[in-house]
Amino acid sequence: MRAHFKAWLEAFEGTTSKRSYFAAYTIVFLILFFAMSFSFLFAGKGFIWNVDGLEQQYVFFAYEGEWLRELLYNIFVARTGVVPVWSLEIGYGADVIMTLLPSLGDPLNLLSVLVPMEYADLALNASVPLHLYLAGLAFSGFCFYRAKDRFSVLVSSMVYVFSGYTLLAFSQIFMLYPLLLGPLVVWGIEKVLARESPLLFIGAMALCFLKSVTTAYAVCLLLVVYCLVRYAFLPERKHVGGFLKWLMKICGLILVAAMIGAVLFVPGVLTILGEGRLGLDRPEALLYPIGYYVKLVLGFGSLSDVGADCSYGFAAVALLAVFLLFGKGAAKTRGSSVAERRFLRVIFIVLTVFLCLPLIGKVFNGFAYPNNRWVWAYVLCVAYIVAAMLPDCLNMEKGRSAAAVKGSVAYAFVVAFVLFPFTTKEALFGVAMLLVLLVALAGTFCTLTGKKAAVLLSLLACVCFFYNGYGSQFVASGGNRVAGQVGLGRSHDVLVENNPTTLVSRTGDDSFWRYDSAEVVQYLNSNMVQRLKSPLFYDSYYNDLVDEYHTGLGLAASSINFMYAGLDSRTPLEALAGVKYFVTPDESDDLIPPLFDTTVFEGEAEGSIFRVSQTDSYLPLVFTYDKVIDRTVYDELDPSRKQQALLQGAVVESSSSPLEDANLVFTEERLGFKLESLDGTPIVAGGGK
User: CA 484, CA 4: separation in Å to the nearest integer?
Assistant: First the structure.
């Protein structure tokens, strides 16, 4: 086997064939990807998390496929050219394109058009390795452009793809896309700085603007930092005029990209600016809690969900590369120039400081609250350091290992002793792999071929341990992440086939109506894939007026204002929303709202019997009032009286309406009550009308 590996390595490094690299990259990627996902696939689970993954990403992905197929039918078969832009199956009714923005902005999600909704689960799961595979190829292309050697590019691309950021594959699939965009943007800006074609940069930035407002915003901020540091290390003479020239050129190219992506970017901006959560004032500390920094240190040599939406961590070879980057002997470095090495030092320090300051996280999150979802850029930086420094890592025996030895020993001491009360098994494993790899690379008993084999094996060991059941992220603190994933190919079964609320579709009623439920597991957005109408909704792009309506009526079931689930079985609100059918477990009469007095169907779902009740006291899609209520009067009412008021008149912003003002009448009764402690001692009592 040793001889075969040596022969393969010599053939791999002895050619410049792109096909050869592509084949080697594909094989190594597939091995590491299988190692990463083995425990999940072995358990029959996929990458779809049973919360956001099921209720948002799967639903939006599947619905995008349905929407695209309808659009293509209208264009090529019906020849009407009609673009479906509104759907009553989204909450109370919403713009389809705005709702699907998290999915539409990623061109790889066009895969959804090829599969029916029943199999969209499999296509969405397949998009995970596709995103990671293409991200690694994009990173490889950038490294080759920067003249890195083939083996270093292969290793660093795997460090990049299988870093801690990829933990998001098991919870937030749509957030993997920046891993693909990052290398393309940096590759593009380097071509611009080298006075080459700007088309790659324009295309990459256009994809950022198409993806989302937050992605484009974060990339633009990072570009400012990157270009400021990068310009300082350009070989040409530096002066203010030259910097302004570059600045104007880059801004112009970004403007062109923004115009290309405006079709999705502008609606996204307008929606976000109209959301109430944008202006919320949240008090923030100058520093994160101490636990954040502890995880930041421990997680660097393993994988960790640090907090503030920051998932990161690296294989052992990345730590050695960083230690050598800050060691002496810059003039002797093999993988990079002196200027590049100094540039990497600066950009690494800057991004590390950014990770440590809540203020920076808040800036990257549009000044809402500290959030470090931009950490993919930090991963890109560290992976490129591996590409630049791996030749040094493989040639440490000739008196050049001091930085690596000192850094490794210091890191091991901090993890094993200083932070011992907080140290995790994965952090200890990372330290062990670091020291083993250090001995293999700095010792004289390994040939160069053996050292390269040790690097690849250390990558495999880290991915296997960190992503599977050996005390990794997914089973830490007694929890098992595998149990939180949806069975592979079962998303449609969960949301539609085995969902008790789907029983309402058997009524055969083709008029307008909505359904609601009580004591039934409510999967938000499930109505979109059921192709039914219900007041269920969960999407960051939301209508702020709906949130205001719910908040005023005391319907906020969650602190998340872009999430709502039903109308709390409150008969007046059910009637106003056009709810005709109500689903409850069988023999649960006390859960059925008044006026839902007819049982129309009983059926089995999830091994239990559920009942569908009907009312005739519901309103159609469109109805009118003959009286109005001034908004100022309505706002002063408590939630109970607001509910009653809505049955008596339409709320208008101004009393100048030609209609008569409603003479509000409230019929309510305060019930007596008494609170007692467990020992029967009265605490408080009240009552009366």
Answer: 42
Contact 577, 567 (CB under 8 A): yes
Nearest to 60 by CA among 564, 486, 524, 546: 524
Which helix or strand (DSSP H or E) is residue 64 part of? helix 59-76
Residue 282 has pLDDT above 90, yes or no: no
Which of the 8 DSSP states describes residue 559?
S
Q: By percentage, how much of the chain surpasses pLDDT 90?
A: 69
Q: Which amino acid is at 62?
A: A
More confident residue, 229 or 443: 229
Amino acid letter, residue 85: V
Please determine, for residue 668, whether its predicted confidence score (pLDDT) is greater than 80. Answer: no
Least Cα distance to 379 among 203, 190, 168, 129 occurs for: 168
| 489 secondary structure, DSSP code | T
**Where do we find the tokens 């296997």?**
464
Q: Predicted confidence band at 471 (pLDDT cuts at 50, 70, 90)?
A: very low
CA–CA distance, 154 with 156 (Å, rounded to integer): 6
**Per-residue pLDDT reduced to its tens digit, 403-434:** 899 999 999 999 999 998 898 888 999 999 99
- For the chain, how many residues are written? 689
Cβ neighbours for 656, distance < 8 A, ≥ 6 positions apart:
none
Q: Does residue 22 carry a pLDDT above 90?
A: yes
Find out whether 677 and 606 touch, Cβ atoms under 8 Å. Answer: no
**C-alpha distances in Å from residue 359, one per residue of 94, 222, 290:** 35, 15, 16
Question: Phi and psi dihedrals of 45, rounded to 5?
Answer: -105, 155
For residues 559 and 662, the model is more confident at 662
Q: How far apart are CA 482 and CA 47, in angstroms?
A: 9
pLDDT band at 685; cut points 50, 70, 90: low
Tokens 């940096």 sit at which residue? 186
pTM of the model: 0.93
Query: Contact 582/593 with Cβ under 8 angstroms?
Result: yes
| DSSP secondary structure code for residue 569 in this structure | T
Q: 458 versus 333: which is more confidently predicted?
A: 458
Token couple for 146: 């920067």
CA distances to 96, 115, 513, 614, 646 from 578, in Å = 21, 33, 6, 12, 14
Which of 318, 352, 304 shows the shortest CA–CA distance to 164? 304
| Residue 60 in tokens | 């939006």
Question: pLDDT by residue (tens digit) across 223-237?
Answer: 999 998 988 887 776
- Indicate the helix (H) or strand (E) that contains 604: strand 598-605
* Number of Cβ atoms within 10 Å of the Cβ of 642: 18
Find the angle CA(136)-CA(140)-CA(145) to the nearest 5 degrees.
150
Express as a percent the part of the chain with pLDDT over 70. 92
Q: What is the distance between the alpha carbons of residues 247 and 270, in angstroms, rounded to a whole number?
A: 27
Question: CA-CA distance, 522 to 324, in Å (whole number)?
Answer: 53
Digit-coded pLDDT (tens) for 495-524: 999 999 999 999 889 999 999 999 998 899
Phi, psi of 261 (to 5 degrees): -85, 5
List the Cα angle 210/211/213 in 5-degree steps.
Answer: 90
Average pLDDT, rounded, for the chain: 89
Backbone angles phi, psi at 311, to 5 degrees: -110, 120
DSSP assignment of 156-222? HHHHHHTSGGGGGGGT-GGGGHHHHHHHHHHHHHHHHHTT---HHHHHHHHHHHHH-HHHHHHHHHH
pLDDT of 473 reads: 45
Residue 627: exposed, middle, or buried by beta-carbon count in 10 A (0-12, 13-18, 19+)?
Answer: middle
For residue 570, the number of C-alpha atoms closer than 13 Å in the C-beta half-sphere is: 21
Q: Rounded to an integer, what distance in angstroms lies between the CA atom of residue 143 and that of residue 150? A: 9
Residue with tokens 């264009």: 75
